[in-house]
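Side project, low priority. Logging it here so it doesn't get lost.
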Amino acid sequence: MKIVSDIAKTLARNDIPMEDLIEKLCMVCNTIRSEGMICQLHQKSLPALKECIVCRPPVC
């Protein structure tokens, strides 16, 4: 993800207001959760998480 690289660069330069950093981190977290990127890794490591809905709650 390009945004992760951008965050790392701005952190290294100490060139980002805290509010902007938090906003960018929230965007990354939301993307990771909504697209299930971490779920696949977790489910392989812990089969009990097959039914986990923390990142993607069921649609009512």
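Brief comment: The chain is about 65% helix and 0% strand.
Revisit when time allows.
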